[in-house]
């Protein structure tokens, strides 16, 4: 790759839409999408066979959509021999390999996941830009109606992302 | 909207949306749109059966939408065939009937294969074109426009402390039958079996059958949460946790819901035909034929009377509790203890 990589764009199992805010300014010449199937997400609570099949199959179908657009994608399957088993360790592996300038994602659906990905970013001295999604009608700024809510919202999503979302 | 007023003159039509199927049952139901697994899904099913063999449930059939195209077809099928009767029967249950008039699109929404605005707009158009009545359309739209957003707000403003909350100090284990469906209680057997076979149950089965039983028993909320998050195809923590811990288990001290949603077996009898084929009697709280829901309902009120007495919305239910003699309460408490201990 002649140019250094700009964004590693993280797509999680419940973010399977091409109009995702994380992909809003995707540039296939300098960005790469990252997706990973990991055992931890099927076992931290015992994820039923129906649920696991749905999530994994929908991820693989979405990966096909990305490949059809010829967008670069790093995708780890659950049964890959070198699958390290957690989102954090798989992301870390991808960062070591491609050295992006920044990590980018739409706000995930689980607090635990957000913390673990933030920790990986911090350990690698990288910014993780968390953007508010478009699959909710209320942007996270509207959740900041009380001091406690504002405090927690600011902790969970960066205020910067909320403001950006509101302005756009 | 009609200017500043809602179309139809009222903001909600819940009163018209609480029908049951009556003695004759639901009659001919529309066939749900299910999607035949393609080669990608087949590969995943093999992988899951091999790598996640110990995880709950079965893969004897799988028909959930896994692509955006399928998700749009699923939405269209609901709007055309089931939305018109969705409102009237949204709280009803019938033995062996999994799909009824529900939308089955929550998993597509939560995986972001569908946008909530698309679902709201499709329902609104069905009303405008005269294809669906206002109570059904209003009820459906409010779930997405109101409840879904509210739940998300609760999650992100209350986490991470929310996950640990246990306001009613519940301490029982989740009964093993939640993982097998192996229980004599017909309603629980039906709701849990379909959950394990399809990853799905509708909102009243979740709230007033599986959720209610855990609430009345006093199961540790985090155990109930782990079950709900694991078993349902639409479960992602932001939506599942507040619905389980707040709405269903009343473990957040009223942050989410204004009262615990508790009822005896009589509610299930009114909304379904489960009790007809069940060996327990929903009208009986003590003895061999007592419905465990009914026993645990009175025991729950009795156990928590001091806390619940502070809630004006519980007055009617506590008034009925007061009609029970001390002897009746003691007998109920003894039977409830036997029941709870039988699951250990």
Could you walk me through the main structural features you see in this protein, from its secondary elements to its overall organization?
The complex is a heterodimer of chains A (168) and B (344). Chain A is α/β, with parallel strands linked by helices. Chain A has 6 helices and 5 strands. Chain A has a 5-stranded parallel β-sheet, with helices on both faces. Chain A is globular and about 35 Å long. Chain B is mostly helical and 344 residues long. Chain B has helices spanning 39-51, 68-81, 83-86, 106-110, 116-128, 134-158, 186-198, 203-217, 221-231, 237-248, 265-271, 292-303, 305-308, 315-322, 326-342. Chain B is globular, with a radius of gyration of 21 Å. Chains A and B meet through helix 1, helix 2 and helix 5 of A and helix 1, helix 4, helix 6, helix 7 and helix 9 of B.
Which descriptor suits the 3D outline of chain B? Answer: globular
Distance between the termini of chain A: 32 Å
Main pleated sheet of chain A: 5 strands, parallel
Count helical runs of chain B. Answer: 15
Instruction: Encode the helix/strand succession of chain A as letters.
Output: EEHHEHEHEHH
Greatest interface: A-B, 52 and 60 residues
Principal-axis shape of chain A equals globular
Number of strands of chain B: 0
Mean pLDDT of chain A: 87
Work out the helicity level of chain B.
40-55%
Low-pLDDT residue spans of chain A: 159-168
Q: Can you tell me the residue ranges of chain B where pLDDT is under 50 for at least 5 consecutive residues?
A: none
| Quaternary organisation | heterodimer
Which structural class do the helices and strands of chain B define?
Answer: mainly alpha
Largest sheet of chain A, order of strands side by side? Answer: 3-2-1-4-5
The end-to-end distance of chain B, rounded to whole angstroms, is 54 Å
Largest sheet of chain B: none
**Structural class per helix/strand content of chain A?**
alpha/beta
- Assess the beta-strand content of chain B as a share of residues: under 5%
User: Please, how many helices of chain A?
Assistant: 6
